[in-house]
Amino acid sequence: MLPAGTRTARYQRIEEIAEDYSRMDSCSRIFSLYLAVSFVSGFCFALILSKISVGQGLGSYESGFTTEIESLRPAISLVKTQFSGTLRYKDGDHLYIDLGPHGIRYFGIPSSEVDDAWEELIGDHEGEFSGDILGPDVLHSLHCLNEVRKILDSQYYYNRTLEGLNRGRRVHIDHCLNHLRQVIQCHMDLTPVRTVYFEDMNAEVGDFDQAHMCRDMEKLHQWMNKNHAASTDSPQKIPGDRVHRLGYPDTEESMSTWDSREREFD
Ligand SMILES: *[C@@H]1O[C@H](CO)[C@@H](O)[C@H](O)[C@H]1NC(C)=O
Protein backbone atom coordinates (compact mmCIF):
# COMPACT_ATOMS: atom_id res chain seq x y z
CA MET A 1 0.00 0.00 0.00
CA LEU A 2 1.32 3.38 -1.00
CA PRO A 3 1.82 6.08 1.60
CA ALA A 4 -1.00 8.61 1.76
CA GLY A 5 1.24 11.45 0.64
CA THR A 6 2.16 9.76 -2.62
CA ARG A 7 -1.44 8.96 -3.33
CA THR A 8 -2.60 12.49 -2.92
CA ALA A 9 0.27 13.66 -5.06
CA ARG A 10 -0.70 11.33 -7.84
CA TYR A 11 -4.39 11.78 -7.66
CA GLN A 12 -5.06 15.34 -7.07
CA ARG A 13 -8.64 16.47 -6.73
CA ILE A 14 -9.99 18.56 -9.60
CA GLU A 15 -11.01 21.25 -7.10
CA GLU A 16 -7.47 21.37 -5.74
CA ILE A 17 -6.06 21.69 -9.27
CA ALA A 18 -8.52 24.46 -10.00
CA GLU A 19 -7.55 26.15 -6.76
CA ASP A 20 -3.88 25.79 -7.62
CA TYR A 21 -4.50 27.24 -11.03
CA SER A 22 -6.43 30.16 -9.68
CA ARG A 23 -3.75 30.72 -7.01
CA MET A 24 -1.12 30.57 -9.73
CA ASP A 25 -3.26 32.82 -11.90
CA SER A 26 -3.59 35.50 -9.28
CA CYS A 27 0.09 35.09 -8.45
CA SER A 28 1.10 35.47 -12.08
CA ARG A 29 -1.39 38.28 -12.54
CA ILE A 30 0.15 40.07 -9.57
CA PHE A 31 3.57 39.20 -10.92
CA SER A 32 2.80 40.51 -14.40
CA LEU A 33 1.21 43.59 -12.90
CA TYR A 34 4.36 44.01 -10.85
CA LEU A 35 6.44 43.51 -14.01
CA ALA A 36 4.35 46.01 -15.95
CA VAL A 37 4.45 48.59 -13.17
CA SER A 38 8.18 48.24 -12.73
CA PHE A 39 8.73 48.36 -16.49
CA VAL A 40 6.61 51.49 -16.89
CA SER A 41 8.11 53.21 -13.86
CA GLY A 42 11.60 52.16 -14.93
CA PHE A 43 10.91 53.51 -18.40
CA CYS A 44 9.59 56.79 -16.99
CA PHE A 45 12.54 57.05 -14.68
CA ALA A 46 14.98 56.46 -17.55
CA LEU A 47 13.11 59.02 -19.66
CA ILE A 48 13.23 61.62 -16.90
CA LEU A 49 16.91 60.85 -16.32
CA SER A 50 17.69 61.15 -20.01
CA LYS A 51 15.76 64.43 -20.20
CA ILE A 52 17.66 65.76 -17.22
CA SER A 53 20.99 64.56 -18.55
CA VAL A 54 20.25 65.92 -22.05
CA GLY A 55 19.12 69.19 -20.51
CA GLN A 56 22.16 69.39 -18.31
CA GLY A 57 24.59 67.84 -20.75
CA LEU A 58 23.95 69.65 -23.99
CA GLY A 59 21.49 72.43 -23.32
CA SER A 60 18.68 73.30 -25.68
CA TYR A 61 17.63 75.75 -28.37
CA GLU A 62 15.46 77.75 -25.95
CA SER A 63 17.88 77.80 -23.04
CA GLY A 64 21.22 77.82 -24.83
CA PHE A 65 23.67 75.03 -25.61
CA THR A 66 26.87 74.31 -23.70
CA THR A 67 28.81 75.15 -26.86
CA GLU A 68 27.44 78.70 -26.82
CA ILE A 69 28.59 81.83 -24.96
CA GLU A 70 27.16 81.36 -21.51
CA SER A 71 26.87 85.04 -20.66
CA LEU A 72 24.52 85.52 -23.61
CA ARG A 73 21.94 83.05 -22.30
CA PRO A 74 19.72 85.77 -20.82
CA ALA A 75 19.44 87.19 -24.35
CA ILE A 76 17.78 84.02 -25.68
CA SER A 77 14.09 84.34 -26.32
CA LEU A 78 11.97 82.45 -28.81
CA VAL A 79 9.67 84.24 -31.19
CA LYS A 80 7.38 82.92 -33.90
CA THR A 81 8.42 84.72 -37.06
CA GLN A 82 6.61 84.96 -40.35
CA PHE A 83 9.23 84.84 -43.09
CA SER A 84 8.86 87.09 -46.12
CA GLY A 85 10.50 87.57 -49.46
CA THR A 86 9.14 84.74 -51.57
CA LEU A 87 9.21 85.64 -55.25
CA ARG A 88 5.68 86.20 -56.40
CA TYR A 89 4.32 86.53 -59.88
CA LYS A 90 1.75 89.04 -60.96
CA ASP A 91 0.39 89.94 -64.39
CA GLY A 92 2.16 87.16 -66.22
CA ASP A 93 5.88 87.55 -65.84
CA HIS A 94 5.88 90.44 -63.39
CA LEU A 95 8.00 89.33 -60.45
CA TYR A 96 8.00 90.99 -57.09
CA ILE A 97 9.32 90.44 -53.58
CA ASP A 98 7.43 91.03 -50.37
CA LEU A 99 9.81 92.88 -48.05
CA GLY A 100 7.87 91.96 -44.94
CA PRO A 101 6.21 94.08 -42.27
CA HIS A 102 9.18 96.41 -41.74
CA GLY A 103 9.88 96.86 -45.46
CA ILE A 104 13.64 96.68 -44.92
CA ARG A 105 15.66 95.83 -48.00
CA TYR A 106 18.84 93.83 -47.34
CA PHE A 107 19.56 92.77 -50.92
CA GLY A 108 19.18 94.09 -54.42
CA ILE A 109 20.57 97.23 -56.05
CA PRO A 110 23.19 98.55 -53.61
CA SER A 111 22.47 101.81 -51.84
CA SER A 112 23.27 103.57 -48.59
CA GLU A 113 19.82 102.49 -47.42
CA VAL A 114 20.77 98.82 -47.88
CA ASP A 115 24.17 99.38 -46.23
CA ASP A 116 22.44 101.04 -43.26
CA ALA A 117 20.17 98.02 -42.87
CA TRP A 118 23.21 95.74 -42.61
CA GLU A 119 24.99 98.17 -40.30
CA GLU A 120 21.94 98.03 -38.05
CA LEU A 121 22.00 94.22 -38.14
CA ILE A 122 25.71 93.62 -37.55
CA GLY A 123 26.75 97.01 -36.24
CA ASP A 124 30.16 97.61 -34.76
CA HIS A 125 30.09 94.12 -33.25
CA GLU A 126 31.76 93.04 -36.47
CA GLY A 127 34.98 94.46 -35.09
CA GLU A 128 34.87 91.97 -32.25
CA PHE A 129 36.11 89.26 -34.55
CA SER A 130 39.39 90.93 -35.36
CA GLY A 131 41.00 90.59 -31.94
CA ASP A 132 40.82 88.16 -29.13
CA ILE A 133 37.36 89.32 -28.17
CA LEU A 134 34.66 86.74 -28.50
CA GLY A 135 31.52 87.37 -30.47
CA PRO A 136 28.51 85.15 -31.13
CA ASP A 137 28.69 83.24 -34.38
CA VAL A 138 25.39 84.69 -35.59
CA LEU A 139 27.18 88.00 -36.16
CA HIS A 140 29.99 86.30 -38.04
CA SER A 141 27.44 84.46 -40.19
CA LEU A 142 25.65 87.73 -40.98
CA HIS A 143 28.99 89.34 -41.76
CA CYS A 144 29.70 86.46 -44.15
CA LEU A 145 26.34 86.84 -45.88
CA ASN A 146 26.96 90.55 -46.24
CA GLU A 147 30.37 89.87 -47.80
CA VAL A 148 28.76 87.59 -50.37
CA ARG A 149 26.17 90.26 -51.11
CA LYS A 150 28.86 92.91 -51.57
CA ILE A 151 30.98 90.85 -53.91
CA LEU A 152 28.01 90.50 -56.26
CA ASP A 153 28.14 94.29 -56.59
CA SER A 154 31.92 94.46 -56.56
CA GLN A 155 32.07 97.49 -58.83
CA TYR A 156 29.98 99.47 -56.33
CA TYR A 157 31.82 98.26 -53.23
CA TYR A 158 35.35 97.58 -54.46
CA ASN A 159 35.57 99.61 -57.66
CA ARG A 160 36.49 96.42 -59.51
CA THR A 161 34.77 93.85 -61.61
CA LEU A 162 34.11 90.47 -60.07
CA GLU A 163 36.86 88.99 -62.27
CA GLY A 164 39.20 91.80 -61.26
CA LEU A 165 39.10 90.88 -57.59
CA ASN A 166 42.09 89.00 -56.27
CA ARG A 167 42.14 85.36 -55.24
CA GLY A 168 42.35 86.20 -51.55
CA ARG A 169 38.95 87.83 -51.56
CA ARG A 170 37.54 84.85 -53.44
CA VAL A 171 39.00 82.53 -50.78
CA HIS A 172 37.34 84.68 -48.13
CA ILE A 173 33.99 84.37 -49.92
CA ASP A 174 34.45 80.60 -50.26
CA HIS A 175 35.11 80.44 -46.51
CA CYS A 176 31.93 82.44 -45.89
CA LEU A 177 29.79 80.24 -48.12
CA ASN A 178 31.19 77.11 -46.51
CA HIS A 179 30.51 78.55 -43.07
CA LEU A 180 26.92 79.41 -43.99
CA ARG A 181 26.44 75.91 -45.40
CA GLN A 182 27.45 74.44 -42.06
CA VAL A 183 25.23 76.83 -40.10
CA ILE A 184 22.22 75.90 -42.24
CA GLN A 185 22.90 72.18 -41.90
CA CYS A 186 23.55 72.57 -38.19
CA HIS A 187 20.17 74.17 -37.54
CA MET A 188 18.33 71.81 -39.87
CA ASP A 189 15.11 73.83 -39.91
CA LEU A 190 12.24 71.40 -40.46
CA THR A 191 9.55 73.99 -41.16
CA PRO A 192 7.44 72.71 -44.06
CA VAL A 193 7.72 74.59 -47.34
CA ARG A 194 4.53 74.53 -49.36
CA THR A 195 3.96 75.45 -52.94
CA VAL A 196 1.42 77.91 -54.22
CA TYR A 197 -0.11 77.91 -57.65
CA PHE A 198 0.25 81.05 -59.74
CA GLU A 199 -2.42 81.10 -62.37
CA ASP A 200 -0.66 83.77 -64.47
CA MET A 201 2.43 81.60 -64.71
CA ASN A 202 0.56 78.29 -64.67
CA ALA A 203 3.19 77.07 -62.24
CA GLU A 204 3.61 75.80 -58.70
CA VAL A 205 6.09 77.99 -56.88
CA GLY A 206 7.66 77.36 -53.48
CA ASP A 207 6.07 79.53 -50.79
CA PHE A 208 8.94 80.15 -48.39
CA ASP A 209 6.99 82.70 -46.34
CA GLN A 210 6.19 80.25 -43.57
CA ALA A 211 6.06 80.84 -39.83
CA HIS A 212 9.30 79.71 -38.17
CA MET A 213 10.31 79.41 -34.56
CA CYS A 214 13.31 81.67 -34.16
CA ARG A 215 15.49 83.11 -31.53
CA ASP A 216 14.70 86.79 -31.20
CA MET A 217 17.56 88.76 -32.77
CA GLU A 218 16.07 91.93 -31.31
CA LYS A 219 16.69 90.58 -27.80
CA LEU A 220 20.34 89.89 -28.64
CA HIS A 221 20.74 93.42 -29.99
CA GLN A 222 19.22 94.90 -26.83
CA TRP A 223 21.45 92.74 -24.66
CA MET A 224 24.60 93.61 -26.62
CA ASN A 225 23.80 97.32 -26.70
CA LYS A 226 23.33 97.27 -22.94
CA ASN A 227 26.40 95.17 -22.22
CA HIS A 228 28.66 96.01 -25.12
CA ALA A 229 30.77 98.56 -23.28
CA ALA A 230 31.36 96.13 -20.44
CA SER A 231 32.18 93.24 -22.76
CA THR A 232 34.79 95.20 -24.75
CA ASP A 233 36.37 96.58 -21.59
CA SER A 234 36.93 93.12 -20.24
CA PRO A 235 36.91 90.69 -23.14
CA GLN A 236 35.77 87.24 -22.19
CA LYS A 237 38.64 84.86 -22.88
CA ILE A 238 38.62 81.13 -23.15
CA PRO A 239 41.67 78.85 -23.34
CA GLY A 240 42.71 78.33 -26.91
CA ASP A 241 40.82 81.33 -28.25
CA ARG A 242 43.60 81.90 -30.75
CA VAL A 243 43.03 78.48 -32.25
CA HIS A 244 41.13 79.98 -35.17
CA ARG A 245 44.35 81.58 -36.29
CA LEU A 246 46.51 78.52 -35.86
CA GLY A 247 44.14 75.74 -36.80
CA TYR A 248 44.83 74.23 -40.19
CA PRO A 249 43.33 71.06 -41.61
CA ASP A 250 45.27 67.86 -41.01
CA THR A 251 45.43 66.92 -44.64
CA GLU A 252 46.87 68.97 -47.47
CA GLU A 253 44.08 67.78 -49.77
CA SER A 254 41.44 69.48 -47.67
CA MET A 255 43.15 72.85 -48.04
CA SER A 256 42.34 75.09 -50.94
CA THR A 257 45.52 76.78 -52.11
CA TRP A 258 45.75 80.10 -53.86
CA ASP A 259 48.44 82.16 -55.43
CA SER A 260 50.28 83.66 -52.48
CA ARG A 261 51.97 86.24 -54.71
CA GLU A 262 48.65 88.08 -54.81
CA ARG A 263 47.95 90.44 -51.95
CA GLU A 264 45.52 88.54 -49.79
CA PHE A 265 43.04 91.27 -49.07
CA ASP A 266 42.81 94.80 -50.27
C1 LIG B 1 38.10 103.30 -59.45
O1 LIG B 1 39.16 102.72 -60.17
C2 LIG B 1 39.65 103.50 -61.24
C3 LIG B 1 40.75 102.75 -61.94
O2 LIG B 1 40.35 101.47 -62.26
C4 LIG B 1 40.14 104.84 -60.73
O3 LIG B 1 40.54 105.64 -61.82
C5 LIG B 1 39.05 105.52 -59.93
O4 LIG B 1 39.56 106.70 -59.34
C6 LIG B 1 38.52 104.59 -58.84
N1 LIG B 1 37.42 105.21 -58.14
C7 LIG B 1 37.39 105.31 -56.84
C8 LIG B 1 36.18 105.99 -56.26
O5 LIG B 1 38.26 104.92 -56.10
What does this structure look like?
The chain crosses the membrane at residues 30-49. Pathway: Mycotoxin biosynthesis. The protein has helices at 4-10, 14-57, 112-122, 137-152, 154-158, 167-187, 217-233, 243-246, and strands at 59-60, 64-65, 78-82, 87-90, 94-97, 194-198, 203-207, 211-215. It has a domain at 60-66 and 78-220. The relative contact order is 0.11. It starts with a helix and ends in a 20-residue tail after the last helix. With 266 residues, the chain is α+β, with helices and mostly antiparallel strands.
* Average pLDDT for all residues: 73
Strand content: 5-15%
Strand order of the largest sheet: 1-2
Structural class by SSE content: alpha+beta
Which descriptor suits the 3D outline? globular
Write the layout of secondary structure elements.
Layout: H1 4-10, H2 14-57, E1 59-60, E2 64-65, E3 78-82, E4 87-90, E5 94-97, H3 112-122, H4 137-152, H5 154-158, H6 167-187, E6 194-198, E7 203-207, E8 211-215, H7 217-233, H8 243-246
Antiparallel strand pairs: 1-2, 3-8, 4-5, 6-7
Helix pairs in contact: 4-6
